[in-house]
Each structure stands twice: as structure tokens, then as C-alpha cells.
Design a protein that fits this description.
Blueprint: E1 2-3, E2 10-11, E3 14-15, E4 19-21, H1 27-41, H2 47-60, E5 62-64, E6 67-68, E7 70-71, H3 75-100, H4 105-136, E8 138-140, E9 143-147, H5 151-167, H6 173-185, E10 188-190, E11 193-194, E12 196-197, H7 205-234, H8 249-283, E13 285-287, E14 290-294, H9 298-314, H10 320-334, E15 335-338, H11 358-362
Antiparallel strand pairs: 1-4, 2-3, 4-5, 5-6, 7-8, 8-9, 9-10, 10-11, 12-13, 13-14, 14-15
Helix pairs in contact: 1-10, 2-3, 3-4, 4-5, 5-6, 7-8, 8-9, 9-10
């Protein structure tokens, strides 16, 4: 399936951009089972090679102007990156936190508090490292992508914006998301050809965020009221005459059921904002005179997100490759462009880091 841009000519000023995909999501079901079994046998060590295979399949089925992308990363690079991060960041962090437990409370606070303040910095840097690695292993027409900038600047920005978001009771979040997105996407290059960040202001981010913020605030108290009412109606509260017995099984079932309902409600109320945020990020990107548009509707994003979460939960993570494939297909189908891009002017970029996104994997997450 092909999605043409509004421009169809090419010439010395550049070429128009047409995205297409041929992702057969059903083929990823078998890959999901294969990766799941091998992860089980190898105690999850196969995940580096499994993740690489998923990326290679997805990348190869996404095309720009009829020419597919290529992913050149390897499982070995991801594994080496994980080991480096584990021994230089992960284990020292855990040892310091564990050792602080044997000190007095005052000393423990003096040691642990700075470490926990450092966590957002490390997590931000991990996101940057992972994005930089994937960019450097993504090739189109034989030319690599490349990410400039500093991972530690991104990490410090993550900490600073997180503090501002907390101080403002969440109201800085839209600005924080756009600024962090600029530090990633605005520093991305195709070879030596720079993607430019030209912010669009027509997505109404704060209006949609206000709707989500107010909806969650009201919904929290409403769901808490309904939860307590359900407990009283079913007699699921703990026995006041025997408090040591702890909560009943019915209490736990009702609590988790309502927590799941509330989570879906939060996804629903924030769907318009999340869709607007993605549209704003993609719409802020330019390469040459070409500009991108993400034709994404809130209900479509909500449907994708809810079904992805449910499949991930009920398959115990087994269907992760299938979920990644259907998400990539969905996003490519929403992506169009207008204007001309001088892609032929791009020169080859450096290969990038020699190992994979180790810090991200050490913290237990990966972009894809």
C-alpha cells in the first residue's frame, strides 16, 4: 500500500516523498512464538537477536519512494551494549543503594536522594543513546541516518523538565514533550542532510491537555467513590475484628478490576492530547522544503493503544513482535508529506556507536 505526498514531481530542487508499507502482520505471529520460546530457553538472552530480527523485517517492509529502508544493527551489538551498561551503570547503582541500607537513616538519605535525582538523567540519556543507535543502523539508498547532540544534555533536560512538570502539577508537560522531541528529531540527519525543526502551533496541545488533566482529576475521585461503594456492597473490605488477616481475595479482585477500568479511562480521556502531540511532533519536521503530516485521529490511536496493551498483557509479552509490526504499519499509513526534499544531495554519515542501546536495556525498556 502506498501513500503519496501532495507533490509528485522531482528535479534539481529535490524530490517529492511517498511512503509505503507492505507489512504482513500475520507473519509476525510465528516470529512472536519463535522469539518467546528462544527467550524462555536462553533465560531472555535471545531477546537481543530477536529484537534485531523484528527490526530488520519491519524496516525492510517500509519504503520511501519505492525504495525500502534497511536495518543494519546486530544482536551482538545490543548484547555488548547491555553488558557495558550493566557493569558501568546498573550494578554500581544497585550496590550503592543496597549499601546505603546498612548506614544510619541520615547517611542513607544523603546517598540515596542524589541517586534518585540522577535516575531521570540516566533514563533520559538511555533514550538518547537508544535513538542514536537505531538512527545509525537505519539505511536508505545506502546512506545512514545520524543523530547529533549530547545524551547527557538530553538527560539533564529530562530531569529539569520533569521537575517543572511536577511543580506545575503537570501543566508543563506539553512544553516538555515538544522540547525533548526537538532535541531528538531536530538533531536527526540523513547522511549530512539535516532535518529541521519548524514548530507548528496549530494543534491546540494545551486545550487537549486541559481536557485530559481535568478529566483525570474528576475521574480519580469518581472511581475512588465507586470502588469504595463496590467494596461495601460486596463486603470485600478487610474484617475489622481481625485486621491481621489482611484484605480479602474479593477486595483484591475488585481493586484490580477497577484499576484496569480506570487505566482505560485515562487512555480514553488523554487520547485527543496524545494524538495531537504526535501530529505536532511530526508536523514540526522539515527536510529541504518537504514537510511531514501525520493524519492521526484520537479514536484510531485509542483503539490501537488499548488493543496493544490487552494483547501484551494476556500474551504475557509473547506477542510483542506482532504488536510492533501492527503499530509500525498503522503509523506509516498515517504519514504523508508535501514539498520537495534534496535527498540526492546527502553524503554518507559516520557509522555511529559500536555497540547497542545498552542503558535502555539495562533499565528494562527499548524504543522498539
Amino acid at each position: 500500500m502506498q501513500f503519496q505526498s501532495s507533490e509528485s514531481t522531482s528535479g534539481s530542487a529535490g524530490e517529492s516523498l511517498a511512503f509505503s508499507e507492505s507489512i504482513d502482520t500475520q507473519s509476525f505471529l510465528g516470529l512472536s512464538v519463535k522469539n518467546g520460546l528462544l527467550n524462555l530457553v536462553t533465560l531472555t538472552l535471545y531477546r537481543f537477536w530477536g529484537r534485531t530480527e523484528v527490526r530488520r523485517r519491519v524496516w525492510s517492509r517500509i519504503s520511501l519512494n519505492g525504495e525500502p529502508f534497511e536495518y543494519t544493527g546486530t544482536g551482538r551489538e545490543l548484547f555488548i551494549g547491555f553488558l557495558i551498561a550493566l557493569f558501568t551503570v546498573g550494578l554500581p547503582f544497585l550496590l550503592v543503594v543496597g549499601g546505603a541500607q546498612f548506614l544510619g537513616p541520615a547517611f542513607a538519605v544523603l546517598i540515596i536522594l542524589p541517586l534518585y535525582l540522577a535516575l531521570p538523567v540516566l533514563l533520559g540519556a538511555a533514550i538518547f543513546f537508544a535513538f542514536r543507535y537505531m538512527a545509525s543502523r537505519t539505511v536508505w539508498r545506502g546512506v545512514r541516518f545520524h543523530l547529533t547532540g549530547s545524551p547527557w544534555d538530553y538527560g539533564l533536560s529530562t530531569l529539569g523538565y520533569g521537575l517543572l512538570t511536577g511543580i506545575t502539577l503537570g501543566w508543563f508537560q506539553p512544553a516538555a514533550s515538544m522540547r525533548l522531541a526537538e532535541k531528538l528529531w531536530g538533531n536527526l540527519r540523513f547522511g549530512d542532510l539535516k532535518l529541521r525543526w519548524a514548530r507548528r502551533e496549530d494543534e491546540g496541545l494545551y486545550g487537549w491537555f486541559a481536557l485530559g488533566w481535568a478529566g483525570v482529576f474528576v475521574g480519580y475521585f469518581l472511581f475512588a467513590f465507586v470502588l469504595v461503594g463496590s467494596m461495601l456492597a460486596t463486603g470485600a473490605m478487610a474484617d475489622p475484628e481481625n485486621p491481621s488477616a489482611g484484605p480479602s481475595a474479593m477486595f483484591m479482585v475488585i481493586t484490580y478490576a477497577w484499576a484496569l477500568v480506570f487505566a482505560v479511562y485515562v487512555m480514553l480521556i488523554f487520547a485527543p492530547y496524545n494524538a495531537a502531540l504526535l501530529r505536532a511532533i511530526i508536523g514540526s519536521l522539515k527536510i529541504g522544503d518537504a514537510r511531514f503530516t501525520l493524519n492521526l485521529k484520537a479514536l484510531d490511536l485509542l483503539g490501537l493503544s488499548v488493543t496493544n496493551v490487552l494483547m501484551l498483557i494476556f500474551s504475557l509479552g509473547l506477542l510483542s513482535p506482532f504488536i510492533q509490526a501492527r503499530t509500525a504499519r498503522f503509523m506509516v499509513r498515517c504519514l504523508t508529506a508535501s514539498g520537495l526534499a534534496p535527498l540526492a544531495d546527502a553524503n554518507q554519515a559516520e557509522r555511529g556507536p559500536g555497540s547497542g542501546e545498552g542503558m535502555a536495556d539495562a533499565f528494562g525498556f527499548s524504543p522498539i
